[in-house]
Amino acid sequence: MKVKSILFAILGLTSCVTQKVSTTNQDQKYHEDLSSWRPKIENENGAEIQETENSKRVPVEVVPLFAKTKELNLVLDSMDRYNLKQNFIDGYTIQVFNGDREGAMAAKKELTITLPDVPSDLSFNAPTFRVKAGEYLTRIEAEQDYFRIKKIFPNAIVIPQKISIKNY
């Protein structure tokens, strides 16, 4: 029983913080004086400087002490040279068929006839043949054609693939 009374006493004390009740009308704006919380500024003599509402603050110019511009430019240049050497980027394609040669040829023919606007590719990776459709930079772009292809080829999937930059 003592524990409950102690908890209620603690809760009662913490909830008794004085709060300012605002009885403002629609035309009046809320205003609260926070000057007691502002830091006090003293001049060279130790006298406190009073700020008024009309006093303007002068912006202070910030001078960099530890500039890293040269080092940063070196890193950015090396990244640029590395990116220029890259011939491929990460992208996506739609795998339509994975299996034997006859099935792959039939799938490519059907894909070309039904969706002529989607480029298709037949590749051989021993021991299977794969038919892939389209090259996309993002998965969202790939999924637009994926839903059209899925109606014809229910086993189609979107897979990640390296895409040649020369195509773009």
Q: Describe it for me?
A:
The protein has 168 residues and is an alpha+beta fold. It has a domain of 80 residues: Sporulation related repeat (Alpha-Beta Plaits), CATH 3.30.70.1070. 35% of the residues lie in helices and 23% in strands. The chain has 4 helices and 6 strands, in the order αββαβαββαβ. The strands form 2 sheets. Strands 4-5-3-6 form a 4-stranded antiparallel beta sheet. A two-stranded antiparallel ribbon has the order 1-2. Strand 4 and strand 5 form a beta hairpin. The protein is elongated, with a radius of gyration of 35 Å.
**Major sheet:** 4 strands, antiparallel
CATH class of one domain: Alpha Beta
Strand content: 15-25%
How many E strands? 6
Mean pLDDT value: 80
Low-pLDDT stretches are none
Question: What class would the helix/strand composition place it in?
Answer: alpha+beta
N-to-C span = 77 Å
Order of helices and strands: HEEHEHEEHE
Here the CATH topology of one domain equals Alpha-Beta Plaits
Helix content: 25-40%
Strands ordered across the widest β-sheet: 4-5-3-6
The number of helices is 4
CATH superfamily of one domain: Sporulation related repeat
CATH architecture of one domain: 2-Layer Sandwich
Shape: elongated
Give me the Rg, rounded. Answer: 35 Å
Q: What is the topology?
A:
Elements: H1 2-14, E1 41-42, E2 48-49, H2 69-85, E3 88-99, H3 101-114, E4 120-125, E5 128-136, H4 139-152, E6 157-164
Antiparallel strand pairs: 1-2, 3-5, 3-6, 4-5
